[in-house]
Design a protein that fits this description.
Blueprint: H1 6-16, E1 18-19, E2 22-23, H2 27-35, E3 40-45, H3 59-68, E4 108-116, E5 119-127, H4 136-139, E6 146-148, E7 154-156, H5 166-170, E8 177-179, H6 184-188, E9 197-199, H7 205-208, H8 215-219, E10 225-229, H9 230-243, E11 247-249, E12 259-263, H10 267-276, H11 294-322
Parallel strand pairs: 3-12
Antiparallel strand pairs: 1-2, 3-10, 4-5, 6-7, 8-9, 11-12
Bound molecules: iron/sulfur cluster (SF4) (3 copies).
Length: 324
């Protein structure tokens, strides 16, 4: 890439519809597509990710923290326990952690030794929200604080979330992370309501709607992360899997997602290796969507009238905020 910075390369590449060797929709087209509701997705290629060996913090993780730092929570004290439970979740003194998901770290990379067909290989697995097709986190949020956008990303509105953590309970990978001492509950009843705000990756929604790449995708030096239209990413995942005679994760899991992992070793083996070391989240293959369970359907039905009323209130609140 002589004579051209990576940023400039990406800018030009994206403008011409190519980045990291992957034909994207192109920034202009992605921006127009996102604005027009075109569905986007990502591919995480484990055959290319080396965990940024040698760097203290992987490039993708550092880029995510930089891009989203302004949105990290700034809790007010004193932080009370979650009534009636005698506990609260405060990560504000552990902001430096990069080896797990927290409200201050929306992406991390697992390193695990995986045995398959008599060989053991080290696999690096970037982990963040999968942006599921039918997300139970959003469907079962009692306050409609989460939404599945038409483009694919699943967003949490920190101005509406009460931090009850229902979304984490119903996520197969327990992705959203709670910070106490922030959010609406502090204004309403800090001792008795909710417990904070939930945080997670939003696929860099602000960036992609401006025609930029997600920060982690832009930063990866090995082009292990790709972003583009859903169709292109689906094709890329299939062609990469064929090329490396590998495996795909994310197409069936939780009823389907907007994130496809590709790996040279089976995900059953990766999941077993993660479990053996008690590393979370795991990668359970073909994991069911909570919404498809009897309990999930019943809860969805019970919530429907309440959710309708809340959604109307939330829509009015959002309109008011836009006018501020
Ligand atoms: S995805 Fe890219 S930036 Fe992230 S750890 Fe892997 S090689 Fe590094
Ligand atoms: S991965 Fe979890 S938090 Fe993300 S959309 Fe799916 S269910 Fe929701
Ligand atoms: S898409 Fe954006 S928010 Fe999500 S992990 Fe990557 S950099 Fe972080």
């Amino acid at each position: 890439m002589s004579g051209m910075s990576r940023r400039e390369f990406l800018r030009r590449s994206v403008a011409s519809g190519v980045a990291g060797g992957v034909v994207l929709s192109g920034a202009g087209k992605v921006a127009a597509g996102v604005a027009g509701g075109q569905q986007v997705a990502t591919v995480i290629d484990l055959s290319k990710c080396d965990g940024c060996g040698g760097r203290e913090v992987p490039e993708c993780v550092a880029a995510c923290r930089t891009a989203n730092g302004a949105r990290f929570p700034e809790p007010e004290g004193p932080i009370h326990d979650y009534w009636p439970q005698k506990k609260h979740e405060d990560w504000s003194q552990k902001r430096h952690l990069t080896n797990r998901l927290t409200p201050y770290n929306w992406l991390f990379v697992q390193r695990v030794d995986v045995s398959h067909e008599g060989k053991t290989s080290t696999v690096f697995v970037p982990r963040r929200c999968m942006h599921c097709d039918n997300p139970p986190c959003a469907n079962l949020c009692p306050f409609s604080a989460q939404e599945k956008t038409p483009e694919g990303p699943v967003l949490i509105d920190p101005n509406i979330c009460f931090g009850g953590a229902k979304c984490r309970d119903v996520c197969p990978w327990s992705i959203p992370q709670r910070q106490a001492g922030v959010g609406l509950y502090m204004k309403v009843a800090p001792r008795y309501l909710g417990g904070g705000v939930m945080y997670k990756c939003d696929l860099c929604y602000d960036r992609i709607t401006k025609g930029q790449l997600p920060a982690c995708v832009e930063a990866c030096p090995r082009q292990a992360l790709s972003f583009g239209s859903r169709e292109e990413m689906q094709q890329l995942a299939a062609s990469r899997a064929k090329e490396i005679q590998g495996f795909i994760y994310g197409d069936r899991e939780n009823g389907g997602t907007s994130t496809w992992y590709v790996s040279p070793v089976p995900f059953t083996a990766i999941h077993q290796a993660l479990q053996a070391k008690d590393m979370k989240p795991g990668m359970p293959v073909a994991v069911d969507n909570y919404m498809d369970s009897f309990e999930g359907m019943a809860k969805g039905l019970l919530l429907a009238p309440f959710a309708g009323a809340v959604a109307a209130g939330v829509a009015a609140y959002r309109t008011l905020r836009k006018g501020e």
